[in-house]
Design brief:
By secondary structure, the chain is α/β, with parallel strands linked by helices. Helix content is about 15%, strand content about 30%. The longest helix has 11 residues. The radius of gyration is 16 Å and the shape is globular.
Length: about 150
């Protein structure tokens, strides 16, 4: 049986501001904007090249706006992604890698400035938040691990 992650629900405080951020600034594709009834609106956006979409709106989650953390967007070139997103007005951290050479640690613990020195796949990151504070991480993957 396949289990595929299709949608991540994001808690936001201002639906139109979030829609602008995810479509205009991140370049996502607007899949749906459904004002179903008063107090219930569903917006779905798919990041460029992604098979997984994000949904936000009114009445779609009870989570506090900005409480979604550790959301990943995979890129093939961390420096180009950083340049493109900052050019679109997104406040992205400078690229970094972890001092262990493995997956980055929580918060800013172990962050070393700059991409991984060997540009090892899975080893370079940058981070940003949406207007509500939902936390995203860009991770550079140039070659997938076996079986991926």
């Amino acid at each position: 049986m396949d289990l595929k992650l299709e949608v991540v629900v994001l808690p936001v405080s201002d639906v139109d501001r979030a829609k602008d951020f995810y479509t205009r600034q991140l370049g996502g594709r607007l899949d749906a904007d459904l004002p179903v009834k008063d107090g219930y609106r569903v917006v779905q956006v798919t990041p460029p090249g992604s098979a997984c979409s994000v949904i936000f709106g009114e009445g779609v989650t009870d989570a506090e706006p900005g409480s979604a953390q550790g959301l990943y967007l995979i890129v093939s070139d961390i420096e180009k992604a950083h340049e493109e997103l900052t050019g679109r007005g997104v406040e992205v951290s400078d690229p970094f890698h972890d001092d262990t050479g493995i997956f980055h640690q929580a918060g800013e613990t172990g962050r070393v400035p700059g991409p991984d020195s060997e540009r090892a796949s899975y080893g370079s990151f940058a981070s940003f938040t949406d207007p509500d504070g939902n936390g995203w991480v860009l991770q550079e993957i140039t070659e997938r691990l076996p079986g991926r």
